[in-house]
Specification:
21 strands; 7-stranded antiparallel sheet; 10-stranded antiparallel sheet; alpha+beta; 397 residues
Length: 397
């Protein structure tokens, strides 16, 4: 229906739902509308709280706006109460999602840029634009009963469907700082190799931080639109908090996807670049598949995922050997796994057991986390932490 008619229908629906249902239950409506690009729609909105999610290879995009509810965890991986609250809220709204994630590790933030995110944070948006191959829907999630109605109606009045102005051309940043620098990075690699050789860890995954100063205010959703053109084989996510701090990424790895009691995950470890010709690309893939070093590191990740999830599953299947997956600039060894969860297993149990995998930290987990905290000169914050969504009977990170 025309956008103006959809907004009018949302107003009528909100006024009815506010007095009809339990204030602690989320109610949701989706109305088909003409084609909208969720990223461009977000760029046009005045509300500073925005989010975006695009699944890997499923051609579904979701633009999220406003805060219907925000749930926070006090401790790292403290998600049991949070997951229970989401499940209770969404009993009558099976298509609604809480979007969010939590920190990579348990230590306290040292970098002020991560403070607005906290330890864990999941947000139910007030409004969404959902774009699928079958069409586009404008959705509303309502929570709170009659007392909340004025806030929703005010937010509805602020929705914009105008075409946003094109973002300013992005110039190359004149300033960049690596932490650690090249010499420091080489020292860290030597220290990591020594830890492996001495048996402290079987695998250790280090990270670097690059700080860029563009000299201008950046539109995070314009950046996401640029990422989208080159990341078709990746997940794409982004979120902006009221403090105008944004977090975004285009990771290739699925931590897990759950639909009912079925769970899917994957081990991604072992990498080569793409070749500059078909022959060189194939040669690099053969080299990757034949490398005993890469196969050994990949096996550590496969085994860590098995050890984490097998006890939670009544059935468990995994590929016998990894295969090569090609992305735009790199190719990885990947082993797919799936299972049927035991009765009573929740997303909190899965997250607590599975994260961080050996692919982003190392193995054994406790020793690897201790080494990362000791060696890396910055706080990872949410980088390499689980990011995704929780629904009534499904989840993906």
């Amino acid at each position: 229906v025309p956008v103006a008619d959809a907004v009018a229908a949302l107003r009528v629906w909100l006024e009815g739902e506010a007095i009809r249902h339990d204030a602690a239950q989320v109610q949701r409506i989706e109305i088909p509308v003409p084609d909208l690009d969720p990223l461009r729609w977000l760029q046009a909105q005045r509300d500073p709280v925005k989010g975006y999610w695009a699944g890997r290879g499923d051609d579904i995009q979701r633009g999220a706006l406003g805060e219907a509810e925000v749930l926070r965890g006090a401790e790292w991986q403290d998600t049991a109460d949070l997951v229970a609250t989401v499940t209770a809220r969404l009993t009558d709204a099976v298509d609604a999602r809480y979007y969010g994630g939590f920190r990579f590790g348990p230590w306290h933030a040292q970098d002020a840029s991560w403070r607005p995110f906290g330890t864990s944070r999941f947000l139910l948006p007030q409004f969404e634009v959902v774009r699928t191959p079958a069409g586009v829907h404008l959705a509303c999630n309502f929570l709170g009963g009659p007392a909340a109605l004025p806030r929703w109606l005010a937010a509805l009045d602020q929705l914009s469907f105008a075409d946003p102005a094109a973002p300013a051309a992005l110039q190359p940043p004149p300033f960049g700082l690596d932490r650690p620098d090249r010499a420091g990075w080489e020292q860290q690699v030597v220290a990591a190799a020594r830890a492996v050789a001495q048996g402290e860890v079987a695998k250790l995954v280090l990270a670097r931080q690059r700080v860029l100063d563009f000299g201008q205010t950046l539109d995070p959703f314009a950046l996401l639109a640029r990422l989208r053109t080159g990341a078709a084989d990746c997940f794409l996510f982004g979120g902006v908090h009221a403090g105008l701090v944004a977090f975004m990424g285009a990771p290739p790895e699925r931590l897990y996807r759950r639909i009912g009691r079925r769970i899917e995950t994957e081990a991604v470890a072992g990498t080569r670049p793409r070749g500059d010709s078909l022959d060189s690309d194939r040669a690099l893939a053969r080299e990757l598949a034949a490398s005993s070093k890469e196969q050994g590191e990949h096996r550590v990740v496969v085994d860590s995922i098995h050890d984490a999830l097998h006890p939670l599953c009544a059935e468990w299947l995994q590929e016998r050997a990894p295969h090569v997956v090609k992305l735009r600039t790199v190719q990885h060894l990947v082993t797919n796994c799936c299972g049927r969860l035991r009765e009573g297993v929740s997303d909190a149990d899965i997250l607590a057991n599975l994260h961080p995998t050996a692919a982003v930290s190392g193995w054994p987990r406790a020793a690897a986390l201790a080494a990362i905290a000791r060696v890396e000169p910055f706080d990872r914050g949410w980088y390499a932490g689980p990011v995704g969504w929780l629904g009534c009977d499904a989840a993906e990170f």
